[in-house]
Please model this.
Amino acid sequence: MKDILAVTKALADESRLRALMALSGGELCLCQIISVLELAPATVSKHMSLLYAAGLVERRKEGKWHYYRLPGREASPAARQALRWVTEHLEGSKVIAADVRKCCAARAADPEDLTGCYCGTT
Amino acid sequence: MKDILAVTKALADESRLRALMALSGGELCLCQIISVLELAPATVSKHMSLLYAAGLVERRKEGKWHYYRLPGREASPAARQALRWVTEHLEGSKVIAADVRKCCAARAADPEDLTGCYCGTT
DNA sequence: CTTATAATTCGTTAATTAGCGAATTGACGT
DNA sequence: ACGTCAATTCGCTAATTAACGAATTATAAG
Model:
């Protein structure tokens, strides 16, 4: 019960759903997620820790950057199914579409600044 | 986004998950859900209204009883998938098993008192 | 060694929400 | 009509949690 509840609680927040959808375009480091959500670093850090604790994202440290990504096979079946549910039913959302645009626009303006942002284009 | 968030928020509470799992055994009226959860009527009523608003349960009034059940085809795809996810990953839970036992024991002791409680046996 | 950048932890505030008792509504039986 | 039982609504309190700024840790660059 506890692990399932951790997943549902992690998904019960708009900012965290937006973060997950941003990651569906590929790996992002925390500062990029911050710029997408337009929230304070401390806030986003906590959101991502919560998603990590629920098994809904993986992390990777590279230098001073902490990269987050959606998990693959290493994720629990519950987490993988939940993520499939979220991405499937949130694709048409306006808020999400705006986030994706923001992410890609920033990358086009200064690719060096957003090396980790694939936005589905690689 | 709003409807998806309504579902995740509805699922992000242990009492509501227990209520849904109790309903996976069949239709129950509110007072039966109350006796399973051992919470105040007002509290359970609010929980069920929230689940209803999220499209995760259906209602039916019969006299002074209000029956709740898991939805069938009338539910949105998002709700149906979410319910499948919940029941699949919560079946082995200890808390849930205890709830089911309680529900069936009460029915055996006084069948007349729990006519709506099928507990999977009809 | 010092500075700058990325991220986290900590402490606080504001908002949300679970829970309850009391009062209310609705339906049944007497 | 009256009392009763099921359920809801209302008002309140306690607990949870989202959000932030400030302080801290960690890594890289000058």
User: Anything to note?
Assistant: Confidence is low (pLDDT under 50) at residues 110-122 of chain A.
